[in-house]
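Course assignment 3, question 2. Fill in each field.
Student: A.L.
Task: Predict the tertiary structure for the chain below.
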Amino acid sequence: MTTTFPNLYAETRLIAGHPTQLVASWDLSSSSSPPSPARPYVVVIPGNPGIISLYKPFLDRLSKRAKDKANVVSMSYCSQDPNDLTSDQKKVQTKSASDMKEQIEHKLAVMDRLIPAGADVTIIAHSLGCYMTLQLLNSDRLEKYRVRNVAFLCPVIGQMHESQTGQWFGPMVKNHPYLARALIYGFTSIPRFLLWRMVSSKLEEIFHPPESHRGYMFDAIVTFLKAGRRGIVNAMTLGEEAIDLLRGYHVDDLLRHKDRVVVFYTRSDHWVPKGMYENILEEYPDMKICAVKCAHAFNLHYSEEMVEKLDEFLADAIEENE
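Answer field:
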């Protein structure tokens, strides 16, 4: 399924020992540095399972919005996304699961490889990527950059076990891990053409992805399912760890960085306890928190609208550095 993204370049590199799919607004094949390295950088940290192919429509629109003003870059998760890799790379990629600490170190290693010290950096994180970003902000690991603005999109940063999905996902993978793996292996054994029809029908029903990228989205998901059984299991393992780690609200972490963090949440988020962000905003009215109308997986159908929602944030983050 051929779909072009005119504002993006992609390349696979070995980073921190993991084949990593990089997507950027500059030609990565010619150099690690963009044509204008002095511009601000916008780093997009995806959510679990970190299938970077599914973020390309969002990244393409974001790069178009930031054109000539900022350098945009994003990355796949390590150990989980085998799309667009060679057979040997797939074996290395999904050999063993990477825990939360290793995933965080991997994102930092990508930044160290591509972004010069002292650069102005804006971080846009989604879902579990928001928790990873909070951990980086709480450490001194980002001090080499000037991280002035952070946007959390549909963030998963606390009480994950009390969410609609967390209530059944956590007990299933913890109490019935072999059954969960058997279901994954059974589902991914379905012939590709039939799996494609099943995935496309269900996603069409739930997300109504835009016509321009519909076939591309379906194909990317099916390719992930067929090529990466171990990657799916590794993503499930990371999700299980996240449920254990995110039993608190982490509101103190948000408050610590409230001057530079903006939260965009959706009231229908099935990975967040109902009313969580409304309660935080009621208790801390000076927090920058706003609701958006989209599903948790906004990247499957809401990329253009999300970039529009981010417009004011991007103006502050990018244009103030001109």
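Instructor remarks: The chain has 13 helices and eight strands. The beta strands are 9-15, 18-24, 41-45, 71-75, 120-126, 146-153, 261-265, 289-291.
Grade: pending
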